[in-house]
Amino acid sequence: MQLRYNVRLYPTPGQRHALARAFGCARVVFNDALRARQDARENGLPYISDGDLSKRVITQAKKTPQRVWLGEVSAVVLQQALADLNTAYRNFFASITGKRKGPKVAPPRFRSRKDNRQAVRFTKNARFSITAGGKLRLPKIGDVPVRWSRSLPAEPSSVTVVKDAADRYFASFLVETSDEPLPESAAEVGIDLGLSHFAVTSDGRRVDNPRFLRRAERRLRKAQQDLSRKVKGSANRAKARARVARAHARVADARRDWAHKLSTALIRENQAVYVENLAVSSLGRTRLAKSVHDAGWSQFIGMLEYKAVRYGRHFAKIDRWFPSSKLCADCGTVTESMPLNVRSWECPCGAAHDRDVNAAKNILAAGRADRLNACGAQVRPGPAPAQREEAGSLRGAV
After folding, report:
1. Measured CA angle at 114 (ends 108, 118), to 5 deg
2. Positive or negative CA dihedral for 370, 372, 377, 378?
3. Which residue from 339, 315, 340, 344 is spatially nearest to 328, judged by alpha carbons?
4. Are 168 and 35 in contact (CB under 8 A)?
5. Cβ atoms of residues 345 and 306 within 8 Å
6. CA–CA gap between residue 136 and residue 142 (Å, rounded)
7. Which pairing describes strands 2-9 and 118-123: parallel, antiparallel, or unpaired?
8. How far apart are CA 57 and CA 49, in angstroms?
C-alpha cells in the first residue's frame, strides 16, 4: 500500500524565494488551463484534450513575453499542476454522472496566491534525491535542510513540497510499502464514539475526550482579537495572522498525534475492530458542531481503516441505523426510545446497562455477525488511500 511520510523542511531565504516562484508558476499554469477549458465550453468548442492543453499553457506560453518566466522552474512542477486539474475534472465528471459515490464534487476553481496551502509536486522525472547529508535535493531549488524523524522504508515515487498557513514547509514523500502483519490476537473490540468520552470499548474501557480545541480556546481568542485590531495590509497584521495560524496548527498537530497513538494501540491489541458508520458531516451542522469537529472522528476512523490493512487486522463499519444504544446486549430487546440524557437504563429482562458500554458490545456483536456471514471467511478491506504516517517531524516545529 502507499503511505505518505511527512518531514519538516527548513529552506534558506534563497530557497524560500525559489519555492515561492515554483508555487506561483504552478498556480498560473493551473489557472490558465482552467480558463482555457472554461472559454472553450462557453464558446461551444470541443473539450480541450490534455495534450493540446499542455502545449498551449506550457510549451507555447514559455515562448511569449507574458509567460517566459515559466522556464525558471522545473517543467515537472508545471506538468503536475495540469495533472491536478485533469484529476479534478475527472472527479467532477464522475460525480455528476453517478460513477463516484459520496457527496457531490464541485467543478475545479481558480487557485489564489492567498490560499492557506501552497504546494508543488516533484515526480521521479524531476530527479529529486536525498543527499548523503540528509538534505532534499530539488531541481532549480537546491539542497533543502530536512529534520528527519525516521528513515523512509523505500525509495519515494514522488515528493510534494507544502507551505501551510503557519508559513511552515513540509515534504510529503509518497512511498510504496509492504504489509507488516502483526501476530494473531484473539481479542476483538467494538468501539462506541462519543463526546463525553471519545471512545468506549466493548470491554468497558473508557477513553477521555482530550478536547484540544476547547482547551486552546482562550489562547486562540486572544490571538484572533489581536488580529482584528491590526490595520489591513500592514506588516503587523501579517505577523498577527501568522500567530493565529500557528495556534491552530498546534491544535491540529496535537489532535493528529493523539489519534495516531490511540488507533495504533487498538490495532495492535485486537485482531478485529468495529465502529459505527457515523454521519459526521450531518452532525457537524448541529448545535454540537464545534465539539464534533474537535473530536476528529473521521480522522480517527480513517487511521483505523488503513492501519488494519497494513497490519493484517480486520476492520468494519456498522450501519449507522443499527440501534446499538437501544438494543439490550443480553436479551436483544429494543427499547422504543432512548434520549441522549439517559446514560444508564435497565432492561425488562433485569439487565442493567451503561448506555455507551452496551452500545459498544452491540457493535462488536453486529460486526462479528457480518463477518461470519461473508461466505464464512475472513474478508479483508480493500486498498486504502495514501495516508499520513503516524510519525512526522512536527515535534518542536513551531
Report:
1. 70
2. positive
3. 344
4. no
5. no
6. 8
7. unpaired
8. 12
Residue 276 designated active-site: yes
User: Which residues have C-beta within 8 Å of that of residue 397, sequence separation ≥ 6?
Assistant: 8, 147, 168, 253
With H, G, I as helix, E, B as strand and everything else as coil, classify residue 129.
strand
| Cβ atoms < 10 Å from Cβ of 167 | 13
Which grid cell sits at 108?
475545479
Contacts of 241 (CB under 8 A, 6+ apart): 227
Per-residue pLDDT of the chain (398 residues; tens, 9 = 90+): 899 999 999 999 999 999 999 999 999 999 999 999 999 999 999 999 999 999 999 999 999 999 999 999 999 999 999 999 999 999 999 999 999 988 899 999 999 998 989 999 999 999 999 999 999 999 999 999 999 988 999 999 999 999 999 999 999 999 998 888 999 999 999 999 999 999 999 999 999 999 999 999 999 999 999 999 999 999 999 999 999 999 999 999 999 999 999 999 999 999 999 999 988 888 888 899 999 999 999 999 999 999 999 999 999 999 888 888 888 888 888 888 888 888 888 888 888 888 899 999 999 999 998 887 764 444 444 444 455 554 454 444 43
Catalytic residue among 188, 192, 294, 389: 192
Neighbours of 283 (CB within 10 A): 16
The CA distances from residue 61 to 28, 55, 254, 326, 359, in Å, are 11, 8, 44, 64, 61
Q: Which of 241, 74, 260, 87 is nearest to 164 (CA)?
A: 241
Angle among Cα 239, 241, 245 to the nearest 5 degrees reads 115
Residue among 32, 276, 305, 389 flagged as catalytic: 276
Crossing angle between the packed helical segments 297-310 and 235-269, to the nearest 10 degrees: 50
Question: Cα–Cα distances in Å, from 304 out to 89, 113, 255, 277, 280?
Answer: 30, 35, 15, 13, 16
**Residues 139 and 127: beta-carbon distance below 8 Å:** yes
Element (H, E) at 315: strand 314-318
Q: Which of 32, 188, 356, 389 is catalytic?
A: 356
**The three three-digit cell numbers of residue 191, written as one number:** 468501539
DSSP-derived pairing of the beta strands 387-388 and 2-9: parallel
Active site residue 192: yes
